[in-house]
């Protein structure tokens, strides 16, 4: 009885340790060749914020309060989504050696890659919290409601994971999906409320936050991090349902098409 109980725990513990180790290695290797090293993971979103701030605040004269923080939240969520989807389209080819010559399965490879992106996201989230609460003049301060960012991020993680399954499965037979996704996400970027008011967004695109789940995630993240509000529960539940549907569809495609990856790629 003791062996039956303890062996599975050890097995899952080792798997989790392996996933975390792979995620840390990948995160470090991503910035290894840069002169700035890991500092680049923190500087990139700040540079993005600076560029869009100049364009929309200084040139276009947007009247949004705490606009730098408003941008910051949208961009760190969007960057995670983009890195986790576009960055995994070719994963079955680039990491073929891991599932062919080790005891790792394909799911572990995807999850470790997204965990690596999660490390960067949480570095940037800490930077945002420090900036918003200690630098931003229009800050509402820290609140227990900020903790809602954890389930909101889990929502984004599940959505990104499901899409990475779908995109990489399609890539096995249609390499053009890489270019198609680049064009699609370029359009989606400007159809998400990253740098303009939510009221303008809903006025121009009524109910589009339900069609574009990234929009709903960004909206709720701002609610809990900036405005000391609960997330919009209808949108929150819808986005989780959307994410689990995409994940379910992705798992089916990976199961059907992923088995042919070794011979096709």
Automatic annotation (TrEMBL):
UniProt cross-references to PROSITE patterns, sorted A to Z: ABC_TM2
InterPro entries, A to Z: ABC2_TM (IPR013525), ABC2_TM_bact-type (IPR047817)
GO CC entries: plasma membrane
The UniProt record lists the keyword Cell membrane: yes
Membrane-spanning residues: 36-55, 67-89, 109-135, 147-173, 180-198, 235-254
Coiled-coil spans in chain: none
Keywords: Cell inner membrane, Cell membrane, Membrane, Transmembrane, Transmembrane helix, Transport
Family: Belongs to the ABC-2 integral membrane protein family.
Protein name in the entry: Transport permease protein
Taxon lineage: Bacteria, Pseudomonadati, Bacteroidota, Cytophagia, Cytophagales
